From TrEMBL:
Residues 12-174 form the Glycosyltransferase subfamily 4-like N-terminal domain. This is Alpha-D-kanosaminyltransferase. Its EC number is 2.4.1.301. It is an enzyme of class 2 (transferase). CDD domains: GT4_CapM-like. It comes from the Bacteria. Residues 187-347 form the Glycosyl transferase family domain. It holds the Pfam family Glycos_transf_1. It comes from Oxobacter pfennigii. The gene is kanE_2.
């Protein structure tokens, strides 16, 4: 039996990826250990991992905290002696690769979106590029979750072609159909009028996911569709700012912010239209979830998103930071039933053929 240690700091879509990956591995052949930040809840991994270890890891660079995290992770690697160390996200990738130097195992790194592609200023991008370039020497293989991620790595000289492999992200289609009948959250449960037409988005309330653009769009379309209602599924460091924006736009009685939820699909099933308005994106797992949930979607034409969405076929692509473009796209979907149904049909076919988690597991274990 091979022992795999997953090291991760980021939550959100990264956690959903790890949960799906572990759940769908053959646990008679692979033994999993999770080393994670305090954003992770142990109960979600009962019966899935042989060990669960919290480490104080944070997204922001803090040399003292990062040093102590590195020391603790190195001790955990020595304690459990994994055959494979699999690091997820940039911070865990940096700390994990340093902690693993000189130890006898196979090491995989999946950035889940390169840090140097973030909207973070030229100096930070330069530093992040050099960190990734140097640390690429301290892992066996880099896994990119989209073609864009691989091309970006090669264009920035992070590694050579032989070092990186594309394994497209995926969703658990089988589990969705098993759970679909159990999704019982209703409009009434949430205090939403039964006649409401719901525009929804799933994602952290952070600069990357552009909740501000979603609220500006909401204010525009509310004038055209009086029964419009808006759901933001997630939490984040911009929540207070977004709540203030909602009050300023005078749409507070038509907006719900759910906070963090374990099962986003319970809310997605209520959406009439779904949105991902990211300013940058390594993959956009929620797009596959939208398509699986049969929702017409609007997304920004940035980074890896065009790897998933073909404009006008299985979704609509718009420019980032443009609430009016979002409004135009949403109105077309709202008014044109045939167009809407075709987007949904094509989206469902796309997710079933390209983004099943079982393919992700198969391609991952082939590396081990």
């Amino acid at each position: 039996m091979k022992r795999i240690m997953h090291i991760v700091q980021s939550s959100g879509g990264v956690e959903r990826y790890i949960l799906m990956l572990i759940k769908n591995m053959d646990l008679s052949k692979y033994e999993n250990i999770l080393v994670c930040s305090y954003d992770y809840n142990k109960k979600n991994y009962n019966g899935l991992v042989m060990a669960f270890e919290h480490v104080d890891m944070h997204r922001e660079i803090n040399f003292l905290k990062d040093y102590y995290a590195c020391i603790k992770i190195r001790k955990l690697i020595k304690k459990y002696s994994p055959d494979v160390v699999y690091m997820h996200s940039s911070k865990a990738g940096a700390i994990g690769r340093l902690a693993n130097i000189g130890l006898d195992n196979m090491s995989l790194y999946n950035p889940h979106g390169w840090s140097f592609n973030m909207d973070c200023g030229n100096f930070k991008r330069y530093i992040y590029r050099w960190i990734e370039k140097i640390l690429s020497n301290f892992c066996t293989k880099i896994i990119a979750i989209s073609e864009f991620e691989m091309k970006s790595a090669l264009a920035n000289n992070i590694c050579n072609f032989n070092k990186i492999k594309v394994i497209f992200n995926g969703v658990d289609i089988e589990e969705y159909y098993q759970k679909n009948q159990l999704y019982h959250i209703t409009k009434k449960d949430l205090g939403i009028p039964e006649e409401a037409y719901i525009f929804g988005t799933v994602g952290r309330l952070t600069k990357q996911k552009s909740p501000d653009v979603f609220i500006n769009f909401a204010a525009l379309i509310k004038k055209e569709i009086p029964n419009a209602y808006f759901i933001l599924v997630g939490n984040g460091d911009q929540q207070a700012e977004i709540e203030e924006m909602i009050k300023t736009k005078k749409i507070a009685d038509s907006v719900l912010i759910t906070g963090w939820v374990d099962e986003p699909m319970q809310y997605i099933q209520l959406f009439d239209q779904a949105f991902l308005l990211s300013r940058w994106e390594g993959f956009g797992l929620v797009l596959a979830e939208y398509m699986l949930g049969r929702k017409p979607l609007v997304a920004t034409n940035v980074n890896a998103i065009p790897d998933l969405i073909e404009d006008g076929k299985n979704g609509v692509l718009v420019s980032p930071d443009d609430p009016y473009a979002v409004y135009i796209a949403a109105m077309k979907i709202y008014k044109d039933e045939m167009y809407r149904k075709q987007l949904v049909k094509n989206g469902l076919e796309c997710v079933k053929s390209r983004f099943d988690i079982r393919r992700v597991v198969k391609e991952t274990v082939e590396l081990l």
